[in-house]
Amino acid sequence: DGSCENAGDVMRALDKRNIIQSDPFLLLAGDVITNVDVVPAIAAHKARKKKDNSAIMTMLFKKVGPWNAATNDTSNPNAAPSSSSSPLRSTSDDLIVGLNPHDANRLLLYDSNPKSNSCTVPCSFFASNAQIDIRSDLLDTHIDICSPDVLARFSDEFDYRDIRRQFVVNSVCEEEEGLQNKIHVHLLESQEYAARIFDFTTYANVSQDLLKRWVYPVVPDNLPSGYEKIYRYVMQRHGLYKECKVGGSKIGRSSVVKGPGMVGSCCFIGEGCRIESTIIGNNVNISNTVTITNSHIWENVTIAENTTIHSSILCQNVTIKKGATIGKGCIIGKGCIIGEGVVVPDFTRLTLCKDIKDDEFGSDDEGFGSFDDSSSSSSSSSDDGSSSSGASDSSDDEDESDDANHNQNKAAAAATTNTTDIDTDYHVVGKDGLGRVWIPRVDSEDDYDDDDSDYDDDEDAKEKALAAVIETMKSQSIGYDATDMYAERMKIQEEDDDLFSEDEKEDDDEFNNGAVDHDDAGALSFGEGGVISGGGEHIHHSSNFDEDGMLVIGRQKNVNVVQDLKALCLEHETTSPIENLAIEINSYKFSQNASYSDCSMATMLAILEKLDIKEGMTATKLVSLLKGELQHWKPLFNKICRGSDEEKCVILAVERLACGGGVIGDVLSKAPSFRFVLQTLHDEEVLNEDAILSWAADRRGGSNGGGGGSEDEDDEEGGDVVDLDTPQGKLFMQKPTQDFLEWLQEESESESGSDDDDDSGSDDGSDEDSD
Questions:
Q1: What is the pLDDT of residues 119-160, one digit of tens each?
Q2: Span 326-375, pLDDT tens digits
Q3: Which residues pair with 338 in a beta bridge?
Q4: Strand order across the 261-263 sheet
């Protein structure tokens, strides 16, 4: 279905069309190789579902051991590091799971972010689970046993795109009883095999496991009946499989072909060749004295004499000419030609496919013709087909000969790939070669505008980003040594300084800069829970972190709950019952694990925006409009303001807009508007004096939570007065605001004193009665 752009869309389409009829059904990735008998796992899933209707999914995991990086000699910190990892793991896989072994291995944590140095489990899980095992030695096989409820959940959560990173992560961390969708884990036995092909490294490793018969009965000489009608393989000496039904393959007497490997039908291998651990497809022609190790040669490939190929993949219709060398980790795309005597650098990827972005916007690949630092700039053929690789000019006859050769290669490739205009990096593939170097795109490139001078000028940052993407590409290639990568990852994960990644800090800065200019001296920074700091005390909170800097479990990445809740309030019409909005807010709060403080701040921000404040509006007019709105909104505040923390966030919302500039900021920050808004909220019983005095104590830097004590005592004992040069300080120190706070303090003390008198009077009365 062309309308499905991701796995989430597919799940919703399956639910909408009612295609899945079985309960449960099996969900697995298309690139999974397995010999697992799922019948016991399905039976266990059905039994759990019968007892507990919320047990909607069972995931199959295999124990493979964790990755590790360490120095060879612990007494010598300068010793070269070594690493170990399962060959079935992708280098990007760093899965941490939390299981309750006493509850059928219920999944309580699923974290696969290799850049994170910590994982978070809700505290409530420790109260409700007698034991939680945190494990890093399990491989997610991407085989799932699902009830139809899983499809319904995707239909309910229309923004879920990824099954693991969104559905599983959010399901396992749900704390609210009654809303939990329980996921359990079935651990495979040691003799059971299951692995997913994530990249070229796992493609090669799983292929070797198949040849070594680890996946029996899924082996080359036991193909399904449909394949046996066409091909049939027989295992010979040294673990070599050879196609025998079509036949026609010939191997030179002086050549050595060792397994685990495979030779397809109608292949020719000349004399003096040495081929080890290589899979060779059908109709492959290999000339004399060729060396190939740990590689994959697909169909219709031609390899000339005296060539060497290490740990690479040669796709269909590739031609390798005499004396060429293919370095490890290379991928030679369909129809490419490697010229005579050419040495292709390690981890080079060649293709004949046109770069679509080059056609539309111009090429940005120039200067990155190879992944070696010493390589020269990438170049393309000119219109007449001549090479622009920077070599010295040849004679006219040589140029004409080269042009003819290039055009002939282009014609051959065009016939094969249906491409009429092929750009070729001749300095990489040779003058008689064909193909261009493929370079991965920088993922974050779309985050920058092409005209962004800051990004264009920062060439170092651009080169570092590209280098990181290329290193990731290399790590997914055959023959890559991941020791340095694992050592660096371990170093990052052992650091305890900060829970924030650079991306999260940048995302948070973008959010804060959208509301307040951090370049100003008195800039403010706002957190999701209403935490606010000024005068240089910047507190950066990602939308996925709370005011203590802890990760908020159950919240989708980069979701701004305050902004979303405010949008819900702004969409609400006062002609509708406020109870309807309360239900919407409560539903959103549970779905994103928001707090009541988030709700109260968002509601106050929306109310002030709804007032339609205009330039030059007087404080009296502002209060009149606010009182009118509060008649409708006060019942909502009564529901969401559970204590002083939520009420303080109402004040912080007013303070935020007052210091944020614009028309609303100008009106609110002009005395006595801020004081009148506080007083109105107090008079309408949205705020009590404890919350206001606690906020005031925070602004003074004191610890007085709203109970007795004079302002002088607060200043002496609590700390310095807030910086007057910041908008926050100027707003707080306005005379009308201070007068209101002083009056409120006196009222609070007077009430406290009267309560003491009443208590003492009752004590005296009781004494008299006893006398």
A1: 778 787 888 888 889 998 999 999 999 999 999 888 888 778
A2: 999 999 999 999 999 999 999 999 999 877 554 433 333 333 333 333 33
A3: 320
A4: 233-235, 240-243, 261-263, 279-280, 296-297, 313-314, 331-332, 349-351, 436-437
Q: Where are the alpha helices (DSSP H) in 80-122?
A: none
Q: How far is residue 519's CA from residue 514's CA, in Å, rounded to a whole number?
A: 12
Q: Per-residue pLDDT tens for 645-672? A: 889 899 999 988 888 888 888 888 888 8
Antiparallel, parallel or unpaired: β 138-146 and 55-63: antiparallel
User: And the tokens for 414?
Assistant: 């065009």
Cα–Cα dist 670/716, whole Å: 29
Q: What residues have CB less than 8 Å from 159, skipping those under 6 apart? A: 8, 556
310 strand-pairing partners: 293
Q: How many residues does the chain have?
A: 771
List the structure tokens of 694: 């606690």
CA separation for the pair 201, 311 (Å, rounded)? 10
CA 422 remoteness from chain centre: 35
Cα separation values, 541 from 97, 501, 527, 549, 644, Å: 26, 12, 5, 7, 21
Burial level of 159, CB count in 10 A (0-12/13-18/19+)?
exposed
Whole-number pLDDT of residue 373: 36
pLDDT, position 485: 79
Structure tokens of 768?
């008299």
What's the whole-number mean pLDDT along residues 703-732? 54
List the beta bridge partners of residue 276: 258, 293
Task: Examine the pLDDT at 500 and tell me if it is beyond 80.
Answer: no
Structure tokens at 356: 């679509």
What distance in Å separates the CA atoms of residue 11 and residue 153, rounded to the nearest whole number? Answer: 9
Query: Which ranges constitute the DSSP H helices of 594-643?
Result: 596-610, 619-640
In terms of C-beta density within 10 A (0-12 exposed, 13-18 middle, 19 or more buried), how is residue 175 classed?
A: middle
| CA nearest to 688, candidates 744, 733, 737 | 744
Residue 374 is classified by DSSP as T
Closest CA to 677 of 657, 706, 700, 698: 657
Vertex 551 angle, CA 488 and 653, to 5°: 135
Cβ(350)–Cβ(434) under 8 Å? no
- Long-range contacts: 248-254, Cβ < 8 Å, 24+? 252/288
CA dist 274 and 667 (Å) reads 83
Out of 138-147, 280-289, 495-504, 585-594, least confident range: 495-504
What is the four-CA torsion angle of 714, 717, 722, 728, rounded to 10 degrees? -50
Provide the CB-side half-sphere exposure for 46 (13 A, CA): 11
Selection from 25, 300, 294 nearest residue 146 by Cα: 25
Q: Please, what's the b/e burial string for 468-481 (b: 16 or more CB within 10 A of its CB; e: otherwise)? A: ebbeebbbbbbbbe
